[in-house]
Design goal:
The complex is a heterodimer of chains A (207) and B (154).
Chain A: H1 10-37, E1 53-56, E2 61-63, E3 71-77, H2 84-99, E4 106-112, H3 120-124, E5 135-138, H4 141-151, E6 155-159, E7 167-172, E8 175-178, E9 184-188, H5 194-206
Parallel strand pairs in A: 3-4, 4-5
Antiparallel strand pairs in A: 1-2, 1-5, 3-8, 6-7, 8-9
Chain B: H1 3-11, E1 14-15, E2 29-37, E3 46-54, E4 60-66, E5 70-80, E6 85-90, E7 94-96, E8 101-104, E9 109-116, E10 125-132, E11 137-145
Parallel strand pairs in B: 2-11
Antiparallel strand pairs in B: 1-11, 2-3, 3-8, 3-9, 4-7, 4-10, 5-6, 5-9, 10-11
Classes of the chains: A alpha+beta (207), B mainly beta (154).
Chain lengths: 207, 154
């Protein structure tokens, strides 16, 4: 006999299912918010893994697995950007210069968030001019969208009549560091002096 | 480029108003540490940086910029929010109080040189005219540094 078992009507079952789904969604949202809370905090377990499949400035498909065993210095931008992007590229070039023998252990990646304009050719004419070791990556709008999701970064197209082609891009401007197993290690806000990044990097790479 | 050259170039900034002119304030604007990055061709906008110091007793307002090397030069401001998202927009008029300075520097205000008419070549320089609300103009010769320059002393 099943007298004591909870007898639920189909409607009740439906409501319970909805409540469960709601709780899961709410929990995920809390985790998600936490993940985005403070990118500079120190964590034991990496908050996320570098994950991408994109095309480099020489036209070769690259994924995060191609760089296993190397530290990754990842930043986002676009080639029509006159201020922040060349400044960050120049900072990264200065950091790579300063690393000396340790430079081979760190791979800098410039990922475009403007796939409409940034073809591999456009990147080839821009990125390596700052430092030959920097790899430019781009992809289809869908690939860039997935990459932005996996790196927890934000970008948007901003209509602006005066800008080239009538738009500019807003985007996350931090410099991200991933350890040799692809785990998020730290990030530096835009404007952090190259000397400070260099000192921090030296310590991490040596340690 | 060394400091001496920069200093020399900075002194080339000419206040067209001059002492005793009818302009109220802009003749007292001193431009220091002007520099720009070399461009790659002409398809991308260039950027120039400098510090404007108001040495006079009147507030001045920078209303625009002009240069023969770009069809559409405009002062823009990059701003970065708490989440690390950077955006850029025209800065509009820029007020400089008496005795105060305004820095055009990477990551903040910059003279954005859109529709370049010629490539900006390292080692060369170009004139940039600053126009003020009192009708005065200040012309500064901006030295072009390397693509990877990070400041006026690179």
């Amino acid at each position: 006999m099943q007298a004591h078992a909870l007898k639920l009507t189909p409607l009740q079952k439906g409501l319970w299912a909805l409540t469960g789904a709601g709780l899961i969604a709410f929990g995920s949202l809390l985790l998600w918010v936490d993940d985005r809370g403070d990118p500079t905090r120190q964590v034991q377990e990496p908050a996320f893994q570098a994950d991408f499949e994109l095309t480099d400035h020489q036209g070769t498909v690259r994924t995060d697995e191609d760089f296993a065993g190397q530290w990754l210095l990842v930043f986002f931008g676009f080639t029509k950007c006159p201020d922040i992007c060349p400044t960050t590229l120049a900072e990264v070039a200065a950091v790579m210069d300063g690393l000396g023998d340790n430079a081979s252990r760190i791979q800098p990646l410039f990922i475009s968030i403007d796939p409409e304009r940034d073809t591999p050719e456009a990147l080839a004419d821009f990125v390596p001019r700052f430092d030959a070791s920097i790899i430019g990556l781009t992809g289809t709008p869908e690939q860039i969208g997935q990459t932005a999701d996996s790196f927890h970064i934000y970008y948007e197209k901003i209509e602006e009549a005066a800008a080239p082609d009538g738009y500019t891009m807003g985007h996350s401007s931090q410099l991200f560091l991933f350890d040799p197993s692809g785990g998020y290690a730290t990030s530096w806000q835009y404007g952090t002096p190259a000397e400070e990044i260099l000192a921090d990097l030296r310590e991490r790479v040596a340690g | 480029m060394n400091r001496m050259t920069i200093a020399t170039l900075a002194t080339l900034a000419i206040a067209l108003g001059g002492p005793g002119s009818a302009f109220a304030g802009s003749e007292d604007v001193v431009v220091e540490g002007a520099w720009a990055r070399a461009s790659i061709g002409t398809s991308r906008p260039g950027a120039a940086y400098m510090t404007l110091r108001n040495t006079g007793n009147e507030a001045v307002t920078l209303t625009g910029i002009m240069t023969p090397i770009a069809m559409m030069p405009e002062v823009h401001r990059t701003a970065t929010n708490d989440n690390g998202v950077s955006t850029m927009a025209p800065a509009g008029d820029i007020d400089i109080a008496p005795g105060e300075s305004v820095a055009l520097a990477p990551g903040g205000l910059h003279a954005m040189l859109m529709r370049l008419q010629e490539p900006m070549i390292e080692g060369e320089s170009f004139p940039l005219t600053l126009t003020f609300s009192d009708g005065g103009k200040v012309v500064v010769e901006v030295p072009i540094l390397g693509l990877g320059a990070r400041g006026p002393e690179d």
